[in-house]
Each structure stands twice: as structure tokens, then as C-alpha cells.
Amino acid sequence: MKIVVGITGASGSLYAQRLLHFLSQTDHEIHVVVSNRGKQVIALELNRGLDIPKKFGLYNDNTMDAPFVSGSTRFDAMVIIPCSVGTACRIAQGVSNSTITRSADVFLKEKRKLILVIRETPLNLIHLRNLTTLAEAGAVILPACPSFYALPQTIDDLIDTVNARVLDHLGIDNALSTRWKESF
């Protein structure tokens, strides 16, 4: 598959880092876009830059030179992880003022898989209405809500319960976390 991973300025950089780590172990073609605020949050949360494998395409969030900003180029899925509600609201309103929001708009109009890993709480009525609009347009709204039933032992285990769901929605086999009623 050809997958775009957008990383925005919501807290939760580790979700993106762990997803990129897993995807680096696959044969899928991966392209990454990090927003300016995403870079700031990554610096705060990870105390280093994001580890982006060299085999991945890497793009600025202010370029139109990325192949996935046009519907004429075939891509399979886009994941925005973490996805700020500001980004989600701009996408819902058709504001394509960055590489990430333009790409998301393209994925919606072309009926391609768009997964938004929302990392915000609480949500106000404006957020909820925009998330509803996105769901009605075909996006998967996947809040970063980890599960605890498998008794995760590390922060990575906890993060991977969310990433397992992302990978499931991408159709990528994984064993990142224990599934409900599987052996613990």
C-alpha cells in the first residue's frame, strides 16, 4: 500500500513515533508530513527529533510538490496521528491551507481511507460537529484512547493499543496488543 502519515501539533508524538517504527518493518510505501507545530510538540515530548526512516518520503507541510496532494496520484490511505482538533476542523470546513489539510481533502474527495487519531479532551460542540461532518464525509475518527484490559506494562504497550487499531483500519496485520478475550 501507499500510505501518508501526517503529524500535527496535538500532544501524542509517541503515537506517531511508534506507528512509524512499526511501518518501517513493512514493505508499504510510506510518506510523512510533519506540521510546524507538530515539530514543536515532538521536540517537547520526545526530547529529540522524530525518528523517520530514510526509506520514507518526507515533506514539509507547506509544499504542493508532494504526490499525494493531487487526486490524480494513487494512494491508499492517510493517517493523521496525532491529529489536533484545529487540523480536523480545518479539514471539515474544506480549508486546504497546508500539505496535510490539502492531502486530507484529496483523500476525502477521492473516497480514500482517511484516519484521524484525535488527541484532545474535552471536546466542545464545535469540535463534535466538525468530527461528525468528517465522519459523514467518510473519515474514520479514531480517538487516541488506549485500552487497559491487556494490562500494558510499559508506555509503549499502552500506545500500541491505539496503533493496533490504526493498523487494523489500514488492513495491516499486527500483533501490537492483545485483543479482547485473547490470552492475557
TrEMBL record:
SUPFAM superfamilies: Homo-oligomeric flavin-containing Cys decarboxylases, HFCD
Positions annotated to bind FMN: 9-11, 35, 84-87, 119
Keywords, alphabetical: Flavoprotein, FMN, Lyase, Prenyltransferase, Transferase
Enzyme class: transferase
Binding residues annotated for dimethylallyl phosphate, in chain numbering: 149, 165
UniProt-listed Gene3D superfamilies: Flavin prenyltransferase-like
Keyword Transferase recorded: yes
HAMAP family, A to Z: ubiX_pad
Function: Flavin prenyltransferase that catalyzes the synthesis of the prenylated FMN cofactor (prenyl-FMN) for 4-hydroxy-3-polyprenylbenzoic acid decarboxylase UbiD. The prenyltransferase is metal-independent and links a dimethylallyl moiety from dimethylallyl monophosphate (DMAP) to the flavin N5 and C6 atoms of FMN.
Protein name: Flavin prenyltransferase UbiX
Species this protein is from: Methylacidiphilum caldifontis
Lineage: Bacteria, Pseudomonadati, Verrucomicrobiota, Methylacidiphilae, Methylacidiphilales
Gene symbol of the encoding locus: ubiX
